[in-house]
């Protein structure tokens, strides 16, 4: 049975991924978060293990990774690079080699035009952590990472997205969480997709100077 570790499991996208994996696969899930009570609905689920812990605790992360095939990091915040260093250290200790990493648009300086300028200001506090995390992950030779750079997130009930590569200008301004979760589920179902890559996700035809609701 394949075992998946989800870090930051209480995040909105992570919860969509969790429910889809439980419905569509036979994978066992380890849900790692600061306060396990937030996901108490899974307490009695036979395929779910809840782990309460800090993302910077390398020993706890390494223990949670025992027997894991894929780590999906849904972590964020201004201290993301610190978390990323801990994830890498734990994966190397536990000999886990596949990572799906939730990054952000702008992490590669890839967002063009006025929207790119607006995005730089809007998430200025967070971009240094995403950019440092990209450098940390790029230096890892034993970890196969797919980074995901979604546009600004919506809660729209839709799956509608296109992708851009690390070498392409970012497209669009928004994308639904369900769309991002769909891409993550595809990666988990087929871990050979997008090896050592960074993929932008956006809803087609949403170009603009900023997201429509701003």
From TrEMBL:
Question: What PANTHER family does the entry give?
Answer: FLAVIN REDUCTASE-RELATED, UPF0659 PROTEIN YMR090W
InterPro entries, per database record: NAD(P)-bd_dom, NAD(P)-bd_dom_sf
Q: Residue ranges of the NAD(P)-binding domain?
A: 8-191
Protein name, please? Answer: Oxidoreductase
Q: Give one Pfam hit by family name.
A: NAD_binding_10
The source organism is Loigolactobacillus bifermentans DSM 20003
Matching entries from Gene3D superfamilies are given as:
NAD(P)-binding Rossmann-like Domain
Q: Coiled coil: which residue ranges?
A: none
């Amino acid at each position: 049975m394949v075992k998946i570790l989800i870090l930051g499991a209480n995040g909105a996208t992570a919860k969509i991924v969790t429910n889809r994996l439980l419905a569509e696969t036979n994978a066992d899930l380890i849900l790692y978060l600061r306060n396990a009570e937030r996901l108490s609905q899974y307490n009695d689920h036979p395929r779910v293990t809840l782990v309460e812990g800090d993302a910077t605790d390398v020993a706890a992360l390494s223990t949670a990774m025992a027997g894991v095939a894929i780590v999906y990091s849904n972590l964020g915040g201004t201290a993301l690079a610190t978390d990323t260093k801990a994830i890498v250290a734990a994966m190397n200790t536990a000999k886990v080699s596949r990572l799906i990493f939730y990054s952000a648009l702008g992490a590669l300086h890839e967002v063009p035009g006025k929207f790119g300028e607006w995005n730089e200001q809007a998430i200025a506090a967070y971009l240094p952590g995403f950019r440092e995390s990209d450098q940390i992950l790029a230096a890892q030779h034993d970890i196969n990472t797919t980074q995901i750079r979604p546009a600004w997130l919506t809660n729209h009930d839709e799956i509608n997205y296109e992708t851009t590569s690390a070498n392409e200008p970012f497209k669009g301004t928004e994308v639904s969480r369900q769309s991002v979760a769909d891409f993550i589920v595809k990666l988990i179902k087929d871990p050979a997709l997008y090896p050592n890559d960074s993929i932008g996700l956006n809803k087609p035809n949403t170009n603009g100077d900023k997201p429509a609701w701003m």
